[in-house]
Amino acid sequence: MTILALDLGKHMGVAYQGDDGPHAFSWLLRGVNREQRLAALADYLDLLLKAPKGFDVVVYERPFARGLHATRSLWGYAGVIEAIATKHGCAVLDILPSSIKKHATGSGRASKEDMIAWAKKTHSLKLDEHAADALAVLDYGTKNMEREHVATKQKIIHSDSKATRA
């Protein structure tokens, strides 16, 4: 099962498992406004998900409210991710930020510095906060796919509930 992991934001964290180990990086969504950044994300995901090897599952850190504009942007990114992933037949899993942090560091309140230190210690990778978070999302997704019941494509699964949508 191949997983694409994302940490949402204007500086999007991206991680995936390659043949030679995990890869993670951050990508700046281009655009002067939210609508342009949403379109850029849709184009980028479309290219990634239709690549020859492709992905089976897209896992992302669930947004939480931080104010009107950030909330609208983050939930917009989530909607784009779910739509493009579904278009390409990928399952989608969204994970609470505290679950990712607890998985990686043992604390659901881990700081950005803690997450960066975890990425360096666990994977010997020096990453910025966005790529480190995406790597933690990938690690969580890889180790918890069965528990999260992500076995079939065309589903959206929320990690803190049993509800699924076909």
What structural keywords apply?
single chain; 5 helices; globular; alpha/beta; 166 residues; Nucleotidyltransferase, domain 5; disordered C terminus; 44% helix; seven-stranded mixed β-sheet
Structure description:
This protein is α/β, with parallel strands linked by helices and 166 residues long. It has one domain: Ribonuclease H-like superfamily/Ribonuclease H (Nucleotidyltransferase, domain 5, 2-Layer Sandwich). It contains five helices and seven strands, in the order E-E-E-H-E-H-E-H-H-H-E-E. It has a seven-stranded mixed sheet with strand order 3-2-1-4-5-6-7, with helices on both faces. Strand 1 and strand 2 form a beta hairpin. The chain is globular and about 35 Å long.
- Strand/helix succession: EEEHEHEHHHEE
What spatial form do the alpha-carbon principal axes imply? Answer: globular
Tally the structural domains: 1
Could you tell me the mean pLDDT? 89
Assign the structural class, choosing from mainly alpha, mainly beta, alpha/beta, alpha+beta, or little secondary structure: alpha/beta
Largest sheet data: 7 strands, mixed
Radius of gyration: 15 Å
Strand order of the largest sheet: 3-2-1-4-5-6-7
Helical percentage: 40-55%
CATH architecture descriptor text: 2-Layer Sandwich
* Count of helix runs: 5
Q: What is the number of beta strands? A: 7
Report the CATH C-level class. Alpha Beta
Q: How big a fraction of the residues is strand? A: 15-25%
CATH superfamily: Ribonuclease H-like superfamily/Ribonuclease H
Q: Termini, distance in Å?
A: 19 Å
* Unreliable residue runs: 161-166
